[in-house]
Design brief:
Helices cover 20% and strands 35% of the residues. The strands form seven sheets. Strands 1, 2, 5, 6, 7, 8 and 19 form a seven-stranded mixed sheet that branches. Helix 1 packs parallel to helix 2, helix 1 packs parallel to helix 7 and helix 3 packs across helix 4. The protein starts with a strand and ends with a strand.
Length: 421
């Protein structure tokens, strides 16, 4: 038999939890959260460092503490959760095929679906680093779970490739657990992490950050014995003669996150080639009717507080869809050019959007004394001066409906360098 629900949410991490709460508070009674892990909370369960919740709760929390507040709300609202349950397939007509040890294979027909599957780490295989597949090479997130949740140390002499936030945080964590982090290498000429993490995780512990460097060889057959680093040129090609050998027993890879969109793709959801996540409108609706997306499955965020804000909007939008089934009105495209890598959403509906919409974006390189400029069919709408713009920090621009001229076909976001005044 096929079970029917009003709203199915795939993922019980911070995005799925916040979306479920918002949908219930917006009047949706029949909700189910489907989570493949044994417990709710997602990646937050292994993020035991502080720094979460400043925007949402006005105080600094650890990841588990932040997750616990949303889990408590979900339980108080008596929202059903299917734990240790994997979604195998999502069809275009919103039928989910799921499986679990307890219930076996079953199908769920949903009136609306929210995609909140999060993201995964880019693996070693995507890097094409020469060397044997020896023990001691880990993704930074896997190492974080081992140390923080399983009580296991991957190794004692560590090199980290990639200066994303997880890599920076693990440099500090491994040091605090007694390991020696010999270097953090970054192929780009700038770090991909938040400035505060560079200071608190590297500079405060005297861990060297080697910019424009990468791993060109992995040494060791059964167990990692060391790595060879080399400088790279502007095309990220290793420069001959700059190689340096560093003995180590552990290499952590922090080389990017990928939105988890295999289900989305198989269902026919249109995906952005830049973000790797669904193309959405201002209501976070995807290209499939009744399917919404939020959180890291949509685009990789730097702060979980912003994930929760976005997920709240997705939950409210799904509730409106179930109650009204609003048709698309005038579609206005949002375009990212001249230094802006992407925008989320990628289009808005001027006829049905709220009073304002938050557009999230990232720049493609660091800027100093520049401005984010917004144009509506070539006419300047807003100019937001910025002393510093960095790829590791997501920017947000608010568009007000009453400021957008009627009939606007395209809104362009770009970076203009110069004075910030």
């Amino acid at each position: 038999m096929m079970r029917e629900v009003q709203l199915a949410i795939i993922g019980g991490g911070p995005a799925g939890l916040a979306a479920a709460i918002a949908a219930r508070e917006s009047g949706v009674q029949d909700i189910v959260i489907i989570e493949r892990d044994r417990e709710l909370g997602g990646i937050l369960n292994q993020c035991i460092h502080a720094g979460f919740g400043l925007h949402t709760f006005g105080e600094e929390l650890t990841g588990p503490e932040y997750a616990a507040r949303f889990i408590a709300q979900v339980r108080a609202l008596e929202i059903p959760c299917l734990l240790d349950t994997m979604v195998l397939d999502l069809s275009e007509d919103r039928v989910l095929t799921v499986t679990s040890r307890k219930e076996g294979l079953q199908q769920i027909k949903a009136g609306a679906v929210i995609l909140a599957m999060g993201c995964r780490e880019r693996p070693r295989g995507a890097l094409n680093i020469p060397g044997f597949r020896c023990a001691g090479v880990w993704s930074a997130g896997t190492a974080q779970r081992l140390v923080n949740m399983e009580g296991m140390m991957p190794g004692r002499e560590v090199v980290i490739l990639g200066s994303g936030d997880i890599g920076l945080i693990m440099a500090r964590r491994m040091t605090m657990e007694g390991a020696k982090v010999k270097a953090v290498a970054e192929v780009l000429p700038y770090s991909g992490g938040l400035k505060r993490n560079i200071v608190q995780c590297l500079e405060d512990f005297d861990i060297p950050l080697l910019l424009s460097h990468t791993v060109v060889d992995i040494h060791g057959k059964k167990r990692l014995e060391g790595v060879t680093l080399a400088q790279v040129d502007e095309n990220r090609a290793p420069i001959a003669g700059t190689e340096q050998y560093i003995p180590c027993d552990t290499l952590l890879l922090s080389v990017g996150l990928l939105p988890e969109n295999e289900l989305s793709s198989s269902a026919g959801v249109s995906l952005s080639p830049i973000t790797g996540g669904p193309v959405v409108g201002d209501d976070l609706a995807t290209s499939i009717d009744g399917v919404f997306a939020c959180g890291n499955v949509l685009h990789v965020h730097d702060l979980v507080d912003f994930v929760s804000q976005e997920a709240k909007q997705a939950g409210e939008s799904a509730a409106r869809y179930l109650q009204q089934h609003t048709q698309i009105g005038q579609r206005t495209e949002l375009r990212a050019v001249n230094g802006v890598r992407y925008t989320v959403p990628q289009h808005i509906d001027l006829a049905h959007m709220g009073e304002e919409v938050t557009v999230r974006m990232r720049v493609g390189q660091p800027y100093r004394r520049a401005a984010i400029c917004v144009y509506a069919d070539g006419t300047l709408l807003r100019r937001l001066p910025k002393l510093v713009l960095a790829p590791g920090e997501m920017e947000r621009v608010t568009l007000r409906r009453d400021q957008i001229p009627a009939g606007t076909k395209e809104i362009t976001f770009c970076i203009e360098e110069g004075e910030t005044k």
